[in-house]
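Q&A log
Question type: sequence-to-structure
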Amino acid sequence: MAMEYNQLKHTYGSVYTIKFESDDDINLKLQYDHQYDKMTFKCDLDKNHIRTISMTLNATSFRWDLFEIASHLNTDKPLQRRSIKTKGAFFYRTDQANIEGLFEINDKRYGVESYWRKIMHDENSRAYIYASKFTTPQVIF
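Response status: OK
Response body:
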């Protein structure tokens, strides 16, 4: 079994990588990239030179008025073949708010998007816009 650790500092943050290699052809690679306003985590597992599991997680800095997180997981043989994606996002300003959520598994997508906006016409006149969208897979009977 062998292990390798690397750390790289760059202008916007740091990257950490750990690799494990075993005698029975199982390899694991973990990578964490941290920047000032976002982070990325990646994980890959190979068995007999076949990518069995691959996962990516991306996130912005969590603030009360803005954040976004997204992930993607792929599995292959000997596990069941799957592709799973998720996303969550929130954005807020005094005149606007957006919310988004997504879950997708093997091209079947479930999602919700909502937003609110305030439009000022003049000092005494304003309009509000509300909208939502829901997404589900098509069901055929």
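Response note: The mean pLDDT is 89.
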